[in-house]
Amino acid sequence: MIEVPESAPSAPSASSDGSAASAPSAADEALAADGSLVGDASRWAVGLLTAAGLASDTCTDGRVVSVFPGRYLGGFSATLREWRTKGPFTVRSYRSVAHKSWTDLAGADGACHTLAVTIDSNGLVRGLNFQPEIVVPEVRDWDQLEDVVRIPGVAHSVLAARLEPGRTVVLHETDADRPMPAGSSYKLYVMRALVRAVENGELSWDDEVTVRPDLRSLPTGDMQELPDGTRVTVRETAYKMIAFSDNTGADLIAERLGRAAVERAVADSGHHDPALLRPFLYSRELFEIGWGAPELRAAWTERDEAGRRELLPRLARPLSVSIGDLGETVHQLGLDWHMSAYDVLEVLRGLADDGERDTTGTVEGILTAYPGLVIDREKWPRVFFKAGSCPGVMMFCWLLENRAGVRHVLVLQQAADEQKLIGDGQFLRWLGGRVVESGLLEATR
């Protein structure tokens, strides 16, 4: 993980021919020094914006996943041309964590933009996003946090707590007991069910799941692009489910365990009202009901739990929706996985305990693979992270353990009837980073 704060402009230096040239800034050097797969992808992506001329139409060959070009209306070249009109650029800061990076670039007029890069498990670029820099103010106390997170038209909840033996010390909470849609955070329950199955000898990490058309979901993740019949170990699938939030991977694991096993995990993990997650939806079922045939959505809304279960066999077929169909919000119809911030805390607590029981280190390796932020590992050597999103839904949660073994939990949740009020989640992510950096979690109370 690499993070370099905003650096001052470099003083001119003499080049070999005597002309003035700018010495590399600390941010340039950090970008150049990142030897990871995401570092390589980031240098390529930044080069597309900073090179003297516009890259050719073949610039993405061998660099991106197959579905990448189709994500840009009018083609990627046209999008890149538009991005470059805001230059020439200077690299101002660079951050990378696991499979994601964020490079802040200052244009000629001083306006700053962030280039976000996401790669798949093979280092191919899954997404490039270039948008005006999101500025999140420093957070010095909990009142200031509330001032920042309070947005008209957006419901939110916050929970910050220290987990001590036999008790939970709440540092700050706002509507933390209110159930809110949590998006992909449902995968924490799938992980708990999987750990229980492995502990009981019902499944092993080396067992395999098989990609099938009726279990192929939509991104995030990349397992949906694997050919039918591809066999992947449970260990790798679980890793992708958590670290890459792979929807197809989660559905493969959940189907292998059985819906009832995941529903038991919800109850065993201390959810305050497990019925809110029954029947427990697979991601592809949520996509199909939420943005597929209107009659399915209407039937889901009108029926009770038993009636909803009767709908699910009708969905045992390949998806009829695509990522482009996801538009209007549907969480108001019960189409999401509703969890309170306290529910999130309890499932994180359970997973932390699971990791300590697992002598193979597999659970720990999966849950700590992606911390979501650049974290000070001297202060927080153990970090669990999960994010969740759907149209109108955004949440981020962390369990951070300090060197003394004391666990701290931070949960931030947002929900709105309009996706545009929430955006792509970078605001909430960096707000979480501000809280972690602030020292508020370490305060005594």
UniProtKB/TrEMBL annotation:
Domain Beta-lactamase class A catalytic residues, every copy: 174-278
GO molecular function list: hydrolase activity
Start and end residues of each stretch annotated as Disordered: 1-22
Domain ORF 12 gene product N-terminal: 36-125
Pfam families (UniProt xref): Beta-lactamase2 (PF13354), ORF_12_N (PF18042)
Keywords from the named record: Hydrolase
Name this polypeptide is given: Serine hydrolase
